[in-house]
Amino acid sequence: MTQQSPFFKPRDYHKDPFIVIWEVTRACALKCLHCRADAQYHRDPRELNFDEAKHLIDQIQSMNNPLLVFTGGDPLEREDLLDIVQYAVEKGVRVSMTPSATPNVTKEVMKKAKDVGLSRWAFSIDGPNKEIHDFFRGTAGSFDRTIEAINYLHELGMPLQINTVISKYNIDYLEEMKELMEKLNVVLWSVFFLVPVGRGQDKDMISPADHEKVFRWLYQVSKTVSFDIKTTAAQHYRRVVLQQKAREQKIGKDDIAFQNVLSEGATGTVDGLGRAPKGVNDGNGFIFISHIGDVYPSGLLPVKVGNVRLQPLSEIYRESPILKQLRDPDQYKGKCGVCEFRHVCGGSRSRAYAATGDYLESEPYCVYIPRAMRKKNKQGNFS
C-alpha cells in the first residue's frame, strides 16, 4: 500500500468536497459513444475566462484544498489551459488532467505540463486493441495516438493513469485490459461504469449481474497487480469489497467485527495516490463545474444546483438543498434507503436519476438485497 500523503486531510463532506471536476471546455475532436458532455468541435464563447478561472481556483483552494481535475471535452482545446494549471499549482492545489488523445497531445505540451507542475496525466483506453478502442471512441487512429502519447509520458517520467469505461463492448476483454495496464506501467487504473447520460445509451451498458461479476473480478485483481485500482459510478463496488473482506476474515454479518468493517468502510483511510478517505458520491465529497460555470452534483447527474458566476462555490456546495439531500443516505428510497451498506455505498445517484428521474431512488444496477428486506420477506413467508 502506498504511504499516506500529508497533502490529504480528513474532511467533512458536508463542508468540503474531496474532489472537484472542472469541465474547462466542451470542445473536442473525438466522437466517443459514451460522451457525457456530448462534446462539440468548437469552443463555447461563454466559457469561464482566465480571470474567472483564477477566481474559481482560489475558491476551490479555500475549501480544504480538494483535488482538482481538469476535464472536457478536451482540456487542451483551451490555449490558456497550462497557464490555468500553473496558477493552480502555485496556489498549492494538486491537479490532474484528462485530455483526449488528439493531435493536441504533443511531447512539447506534455513537457510544459510537467514543468508547470501537473501531478498526473490520465488517458482513456477502452479496449486492449485499436479495433475495440477506436470503435468506442468514434475515431480511427485514437488507440495508436494514445499509445504514442503514453510513450512520451514515460520518457518524461510522469505518472500515468488510465481511465476505462466498462461497457458491453469490452467486458469480454478485461483480462487483456489488465495485462495491458501492466505493460503500460500505470500507477492507477480508473474503471468507470457507464451511466446513460449524454451520448451514453442503456443498450451499451452491462447487466446488473455483470456489474457484480466485474466488481468481484476487480477485487481479486487488486490484490495481485502492481498498480492501484479505483472505480467511478460504481459505489456498490465498496459493498462487494467489504463483503469479500468479511468472508476472508470469516466474519459473520451479525458479529461486532462486521459492524467494525462497515464502520471502516464509511470512514476509511487515504493513500498517496489521492483516493478518497471514504467513498464519494454525486454531491457527497464530489462536485462538478461546467464550462460555463454551472454546478452539478457530478457530470453524470444533470441537476443544476448553482453557478459560480452568481454564487461562491463553497456556498453552493454547503447550502444547496439538493446537495444536502444527496449527502443524507437515510433519505434514499427503495432498497438503498434500508440497505445496511447505504452509508458506505449509497448506490450511484446519477444512475438512479438516469433510470427513474429521481436521484434519491435505488441504484438500478445493483443485485444485492438488503438484510432488512430479506428479513421482512422471510417473516412474511411465515405469517
Automatic annotation (TrEMBL):
Necessary cofactors: [4Fe-4S] cluster
Highest taxon in the source lineage: Bacteria
InterPro entries: Aldolase_TIM, Elp3/MiaA/NifB-like_rSAM, PqqE-like, Radical_SAM_PqqE_MftC-like, rSAM, rSAM_sf
Keyword Repressor attached: no
PROSITE patterns (alphabetical): RADICAL_SAM
Keyword Nucleotide-binding part of the UniProt annotation: no
A single MF term (Gene Ontology): 4 iron, 4 sulfur cluster binding
Domain Radical SAM core: 14-228
Entry-linked CDD domains: Radical_SAM (cd01335), SPASM_MftC-like (cd21123)
SUPFAM superfamilies associated with the record: Radical SAM enzymes (SSF102114)
UniProt keyword list: 4Fe-4S, Iron, Iron-sulfur, Metal-binding, S-adenosyl-L-methionine
Protein name in UniProt: TIGR04053 family radical SAM/SPASM domain-containing protein
Source species of the chain: Gracilibacillus salitolerans
